[in-house]
């Protein structure tokens, strides 16, 4: 029996995100229905609303979520009814060439639920990143559910589902930040802030936060930055070189996704250092760099997909570190709001005064 619940839907480009009735089918083979307890408001949700990701309206927004498994379909063994789970948007297939080579974090064929959730009139919904969790319940592939310690608050746990994992993973998984490293993080929103936290966790000796907004730099300090640079008033490249003995940083995380910040990242990296691009550019953006510098500076220019995370490995581990007091995931929750407040949260995000608003159900 399908069921009707409330969910936040955008019916057309730039239309308001509105709470409406949605229909959730019973889980089919390999699927699960999850009762959502909390879901963070991410920039990607706003991009969906603005038509920046696709034209498959209506979208069911929300994708940084935690909740409890309500029911599972045939053949599901990885999670069971009653499990507290964090949802992920990259359920690995186990079959593709990346999975077969033992690198499932790069899975090239991730999947979502096969059945569709709909509006009451039967119109199929496109769930954001295959999740759609600004809703009382959602239907996902069972592989999108990762069981974690149920003692942790859902508002905190859900954040691992996207931005915070992307940032921590950019530093730890992609950038391989190690003890004693110097790190520069360009752009200190939710993702960059998490890269700072991740770098501290990994034992970086020096963590330089770069942003154009002093409020963000203040937050960055609270998250573990040892130095801050306002690149509106200072030359970021010069300032970072100065803070690193004239050399540049071992690892630079670019968490904005723009050509000018990528170029800064490229030039503030020490010889043989690593640049990690975790900010997402738009299709029109281009960079031009002297090829001789690309060669001559050596090292690695990497991109980080979702922090190159493996949810089954990384989510429980980060929750454990949080529970032990070694990783303050709560610092990313600026405010908790209701299901009807997603539009207001978008406005606050636009104003730049939140790391994360989290919808709590
Ligand atoms: N130089 C330095 N910082 C900048 C610049 C710039 N030119 N332009 C913007 N910023 C800062 C903003 O002030 C803000 O603090 O980058 C930060 C971006 O943060 P958010 O808007 O909160 O975005 P976030 O959720 O962190 O995501 C960052 O990663 O996942 C992607 O699509 C996402 O591209 C985005 C990026
Ligand atoms: Zn795969
Ligand atoms: Zn997201």
UniProtKB/TrEMBL annotation:
Keyword Nuclease: no
Presence of keyword DNA damage: no
Record keywords: Metal-binding, Oxidoreductase, Zinc
Cofactor(s) the record lists: Zn(2+)
Organism superkingdom: Bacteria
Residues annotated as domain Enoyl reductase (ER): 17-361
GO MF annotations, alphabetized: oxidoreductase activity; zinc ion binding
One Pfam entry name: ADH_zinc_N
Family: Belongs to the zinc-containing alcohol dehydrogenase family.
Protein name in the entry: Mycothiol-dependent formaldehyde dehydrogenase
Organism: Streptomyces griseoflavus Tu4000
């Amino acid at each position: 029996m399908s069921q009707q619940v409330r969910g936040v839907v955008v019916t057309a480009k730039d239309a308001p995100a509105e709470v409406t009735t949605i229909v959730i089918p019973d889980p089919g083979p390999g699927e699960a229905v999850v009762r959502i307890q909390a879901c963070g408001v991410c920039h990607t949700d706003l991009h969906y609303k603005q038509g920046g990701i696709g034209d498959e309206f209506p979208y069911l927004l929300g994708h940084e979520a935690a909740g409890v498994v309500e029911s599972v379909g045939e053949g599901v063994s990885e999670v069971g009814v009653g499990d507290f789970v964090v949802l992920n948007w990259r359920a690995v297939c186990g079959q593709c060439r990346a999975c077969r080579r033992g690198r499932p974090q790069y899975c090239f064929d991730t999947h979502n639920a096969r059945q569709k959730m709909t509006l009451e009139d039967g119109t199929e919904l496109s769930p954001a990143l295959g999740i759609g969790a600004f809703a009382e319940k959602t239907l996902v592939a069972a592989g999108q559910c990762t069981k974690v310690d149920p003692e942790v608050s859902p508002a905190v746990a859900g954040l691992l589902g996207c931005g915070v994992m992307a940032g921590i993973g950019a530093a730890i998984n992609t950038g391989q930040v190690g003890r004693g490293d110097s790190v520069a993080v360009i752009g200190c929103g939710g993702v960059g802030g998490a890269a700072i936290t991740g770098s501290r966790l990994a034992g970086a000796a020096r963590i330089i936060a770069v942003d154009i907004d002093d409020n963000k730099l203040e937050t960055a300090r609270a998250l573990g930055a040892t130095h801050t640079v306002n690149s509106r008033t200072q030359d970021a490249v010069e300032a970072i070189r100065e803070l690193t003995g004239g050399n540049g940083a071992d690892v630079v995380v670019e968490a904005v996704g723009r050509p000018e910040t990528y170029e800064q990242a490229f030039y503030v990296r020490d010889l043989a250092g690593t640049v990690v691009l975790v900010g997402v550019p738009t299709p029109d953006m281009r960079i031009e760099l002297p090829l001789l510098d690309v060669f001559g500076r050596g090292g690695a220019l990497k991109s980080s997909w979702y922090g190159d995370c493996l949810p089954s490995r990384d989510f429980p581990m980060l929750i454990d570190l949080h529970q032990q007091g070694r990783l303050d995931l709560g610092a990313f929750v600026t405010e908790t709001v209701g299901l009807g407040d997603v539009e207001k949260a978008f406005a606050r995000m636009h104003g730049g005064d939140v790391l994360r608003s989290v919808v709590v159900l």
